[in-house]
Amino acid sequence: MSTLELIVEELKTLPQDRLERAADYIHRLREVSLAERRAVLKKTAGSLTKEEADELEKIIEQGCEKIDERDW
Question: Which of 8, 22, 42, 72 is buried deepest, with most CB atoms within 10 A?
């Protein structure tokens, strides 16, 4: 059984008031995670020069944007 499945099974056994507390906690975890991601994006946005960004874009196009038809 996966971790998610175990958590769901345990949640099913909780009384309503505890289930609401668990839902609130999960919501806060998600919000913190979202805020952390936004902070990292804000901190690093614009950190590359135009030349560095162009070079990175070229590398990505050359190495990542290829379709291997045999992989399907």
Answer: 22
Q: What percent of the chain stands above pLDDT 70? A: 96
Indicate the number of domains in the chain: 1
7 is a domain residue: no
User: Concatenated DSSP letters for the chain?
Assistant: --HHHHHHHHHHTS-HHHHHHHHHHHHHHHHHHHHHHHHHHHHHTT-S-HHHHHHHHHHHHHHHS---GGG-
Residue 10 resides in a domain: no
User: Does 57 map to a domain?
Assistant: yes
Residues with Cβ within 8 Å of 56's Cβ and at least 6 positions away in sequence, in order, are 48
pTM score of the predicted model: 0.47
Residue pair 50/57 in contact (Cβ under 8 Å)? The answer is no
